[in-house]
Amino acid sequence: AQSVTQPDIHITVSEGASLELRCNYSYGATPYLFWYVQSPGQGLQLLLKYFSGDTLVQGIKGFEAEFKRSQSSFNLRKPSVHWSDAAEYFCAVGYMDTGRRALTFGSGTRLQVQP
Amino acid sequence: DAGITQSPRHKVTETGTPVTLRCHQTENHRYMYWYRQDPGHGLRLIHYSYGVKDTDKGEVSDGYSVSRSKTEDFLLTLESATSSQTSVYFCAISLGAGGNNEQFFGPGTRLTVL
């Protein structure tokens, strides 16, 4: 079965430090990959997505992610974290096979930013 | 922001009572989804709809039913609420089918079943 793993439940970084959130997927074909962010009490907002082409994708708020097929990974990065980045981040994978029209989400990584 | 509203935003109910959550969109998107969010589980799909009166089950559909009589509305019903259905419920929409279509999410409904 397809699955998405976010191995880090909680991460704390200092403001201004770099950030990398890990995401691994299990899927037989090329997946469609997404990163969403959820601020407290809010819905999910799309940060970026990968469908095909350049494996390094840029998103909103200064985030980027790199698709590595050999590692089945789609890690999210930001060179310098701001206090407003404190939120929960979800990696998700989508499929094109018939009958499966939704996304499968990882369990999320909660980011805390220290001053 | 995508025009998605959910009502109510918060609800407290008792075990055994019926509950209906509403998702309303103004985007005229064909596909609509209901997810539940629980700590440690991320979001899990309950049901989805691929058109008016066309719905299908997701991975955690037991105890839930849905209806879609209009493009803009997708209702989620808990026929007899249980404490295990205490969760945050999110509605989502997408323009097309398949995994290459971005989903837009509503603000969520926090449901507590006592």
Number of strands of chain A: 12
Shape by Cα distribution of chain A? globular
Our estimate of the beta-strand percent of chain A is over 45%
User: How large, in whole angstroms, is the Cα Rg of chain B?
Assistant: 13 Å
Helix content of chain A: under 10%
C-alpha termini separation of chain B? 33 Å
Q: Nearest-angstrom radius of gyration of chain A?
A: 14 Å
- Summarize the amount of helix of chain B as a percent range: under 10%
Oligomer: heterodimer
Question: Count the strands of chain B?
Answer: 11
Instruction: Find the biggest chain interface.
Output: A-B, 29 and 29 residues
In terms of DSSP E residues, the strand content of chain B is over 45%
Q: How would you describe this protein?
A:
The complex is a heterodimer of chains A (115) and B (114). Chain A has 115 residues and is an all-beta fold. Chain A has strands spanning 3-5, 10-14, 19-21, 24-26, 32-38, 44-50, 56-58, 64-68, 73-78, 87-94, 103-105, 109-114. Chain A has no helices and twelve strands. Chain B is globular. The N and C termini of chain B lie far apart (33 Å).
Features:
heterodimer; A: 115 residues; mainly beta; six-stranded mixed β-sheet; four-stranded antiparallel β-sheet; globular; B: 114 residues
List the helices and strands and how they pair.
The complex is a heterodimer of chains A (115) and B (114).
Chain A (H helix, E strand, L loop, with lengths): L2 E3 L4 E5 L4 E3 L2 E3 L5 E7 L5 E7 L5 E3 L5 E5 L4 E6 L8 E8 L8 E3 L3 E6 L1
Parallel strand pairs in A: 2-12
Antiparallel strand pairs in A: 1-4, 3-9, 5-6, 5-10, 7-8, 8-9, 10-11, 10-12
Chain B lengths: L3 E4 L2 E4 L5 E7 L5 E8 L3 E10 L2 E4 L6 E7 L2 E6 L8 E8 L9 E2 L3 E5 L1
Parallel strand pairs in B: 2-11
Antiparallel strand pairs in B: 1-3, 3-8, 4-5, 4-9, 5-6, 7-8, 9-10, 9-11
Question: Gist?
Answer:
Chain A is mainly β.
